[in-house]
């Protein structure tokens, strides 16, 4: 038997509906379930170009010749806030999030916020990276394995660490 939905789930759902600019909870719920299902399939699909197509079907704006590795998690609530330009490569098990929120008790300090994530042409995101909301990764930038990106990364730069810091420029 399914138990009653928690207060936390109700609040999170209502916030997500508001931030998606949807006035209809049923339509939002159907869209969310469709995106969840597509993400689960895309996450482990063996053909890389099909992983990309499945993520596009979720609403992520993806350019041409993009590689998305296995188990990459794109924001489940706001995939349409993510743009990936041409020739980008994203390694396995990265997380790209376009929203954030605190617990029920911390909502006054950390309300739900959303902001676009843009990964520019030719960028390489190595495996295990986390990219937070509102971030732009510049053209042909390299994000080292396991980096946590909390600030914009300029074009033609290499950034590593937690939080990610630029350690070198690839061209002046």
TrEMBL record:
GO molecular function list: O-acyltransferase activity
SUPFAM superfamilies in the cross-refs: Trimeric LpxA-like enzymes
Annotated Gene3D superfamilies: Hexapeptide repeat proteins
Keyword Transferase in record: yes
Pfam families, A to Z: Hexapep
Family label: Belongs to the transferase hexapeptide repeat family.
Stated name of the protein: Acetyltransferase
């Amino acid at each position: 038997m399914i138990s009653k939905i928690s207060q936390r789930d109700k609040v999170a759902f209502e916030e997500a509906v508001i931030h998606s600019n949807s006035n209809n909870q049923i339509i939002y719920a159907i869209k969310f379930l469709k995106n969840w299902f597509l993400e689960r399939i895309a996450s482990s699909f063996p053909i890389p170009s099909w992983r990309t197509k499945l993520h596009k079907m979720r609403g992520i704006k993806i350019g041409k010749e993009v590689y998305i590795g296995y188990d990459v998690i794109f924001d489940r609530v706001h995939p349409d806030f993510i743009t990936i330009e041409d020739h980008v490569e994203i390694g396995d098990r990265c997380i790209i999030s376009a929203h954030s929120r605190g617990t029920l008790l911390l909502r006054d300090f950390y309300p739900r916020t959303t902001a676009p994530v843009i990964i520019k042409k030719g960028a390489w995101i190595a495996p295990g990276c986390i990219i937070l909301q509102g971030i732009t990764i510049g053209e042909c930038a390299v994000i080292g394995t396991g980096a946590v990106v909390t600030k914009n990364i300029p074009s033609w730069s290499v950034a590593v660490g937690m939080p990610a810091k630029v350690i070198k420029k690839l061209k002046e």
